[in-house]
């Protein structure tokens, strides 16, 4: 049984897959992906097929966090839809196998871009990749949740009320210092919440360029990754999450578009991306977008605070990066407060 996030009990995994995964045959080579901060993820290479194992971290975790069973369920449900996902093989809920729940999916080959500058990609392909990102997002929000068996994947009621309450509790549970902007932002999100417009769709919860795999030579999306925060909710949270990311500084830390010459690089403006999304979903436009943007900055601040706490407690997937990311909590909180005030 593996006791930490960096290693995997290969013998236990190999034995389990030999008995439960049709077509599995060793030898098996295991490599840990260093990207991502939540659920430790491993490549499993075999002579005939490459798989990915994604597990819950061992140890004491926040309630409802690291729900790999939900990740498995939503991707399984989307198989064959207009939303590209990896093929799901099996979910192991028996903690005794490797120390925590895990699932097995196909490894999807292709290109993954850490930031929208996409070094080495032509302006035409950059624009095509971002347009594909918008197409897939609109397709995700048009999924018939009843038809794919996900009508019960999230509770009824106002999504933003529920999410602000949830992440406020998560933030308080992992709080390590007082951040006035975060306190003010949480109050403002409660007080300025828009009326519920009735939209209830599948949402990814962390829809970003670096959570997508694209064709090795083209612009088509092959798979969306990291569904841990997915639920039934309001689609504008996903859309605002994209714009939130783009407002951050360019480079490997911010992974945004701040300071980039978007026109020269073939990248769209925020407004052009929003308008294309609305056109695909036959929406007239979006009022009070600043609220949704402020919410996304708030939620990301809460997520990063949780990563920081795990880093300090010694059970983060990448402890050194966890501590570095923690420095951005006050920055995200201030950005969120600014967006909320702009309306």
UniProtKB/TrEMBL annotation:
Transmembrane segments: none annotated. Keywords: Transferase. InterPro entries: ACAD10-like (IPR052898), ACAD10_11_N (IPR041726), Aminoglycoside_PTrfase (IPR002575), Kinase-like_dom_sf (IPR011009). Pfam families: APH. Residues 30-253 form the Aminoglycoside phosphotransferase domain. One of its GO terms (molecular function) is transferase activity. It comes from Planktotalea frisia. The keyword Transferase applies. This is Phosphotransferase enzyme family protein. The keyword DNA damage does not apply.
């Amino acid at each position: 049984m593996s006791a930490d996030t960096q290693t995997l009990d290969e013998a236990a995994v190999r034995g389990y897959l030999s008995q439960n995964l049709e077509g599995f045959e060793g030898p098996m080579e295991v490599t840990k992906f260093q990207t991502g901060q939540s659920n430790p993820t491993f490549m499993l290479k075999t002579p005939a097929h490459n798989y990915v194992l994604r597990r819950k971290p061992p140890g004491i975790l926040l309630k409802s966090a690291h729900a790999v069973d939900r990740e498995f369920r939503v991707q399984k449900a989307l198989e064959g839809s207009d939303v590209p996902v990896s093929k799901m093989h099996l979910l192991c809920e028996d903690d005794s196998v490797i120390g925590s729940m895990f699932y097995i999916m196909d490894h999807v080959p292709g290109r993954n871009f850490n930031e929208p500058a996409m070094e080495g990609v032509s302006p035409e392909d950059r624009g095509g990749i971002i347009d594909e990102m918008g197409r897939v997002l609109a397709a995700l929000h048009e999924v018939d949740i009843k038809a794919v068996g996900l009508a019960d994947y999230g509770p009824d009621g106002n999504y933003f009320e529920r999410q602000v309450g949830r992440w406020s509790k998560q933030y308080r549970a992992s709080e390590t210092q007082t951040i006035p902007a975060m306190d003010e932002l949480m109050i403002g999100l409660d007080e300025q919440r828009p009326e519920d417009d009735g939209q209830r769709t599948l949402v990814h919860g962390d829809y970003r360029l670096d959570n997508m795999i694209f064709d090795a030579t083209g612009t088509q999306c092959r798979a969306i990754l990291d569904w841990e925060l997915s639920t039934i909710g309001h689609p504008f949270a996903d859309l605002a999450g994209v714009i939130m990311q783009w407002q951050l500084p360019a480079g490997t830390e911010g992974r945004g578009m701040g300071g980039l010459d978007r026109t020269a690089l073939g990248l769209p403006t925020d407004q052009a991306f929003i308008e294309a999304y609305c056109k695909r979903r036959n929406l007239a436009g979006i009022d009070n977008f600043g609220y949704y943007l402020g919410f996304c900055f708030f939620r990301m601040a809460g997520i990063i605070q949780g990563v920081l706490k795990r880093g300090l407690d010694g059970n983060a997937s990448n402890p050194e990066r966890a501590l570095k990311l923690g420095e951005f909590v006050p920055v995200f909180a201030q950005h969120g407060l600014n967006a909320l005030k702009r309306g």
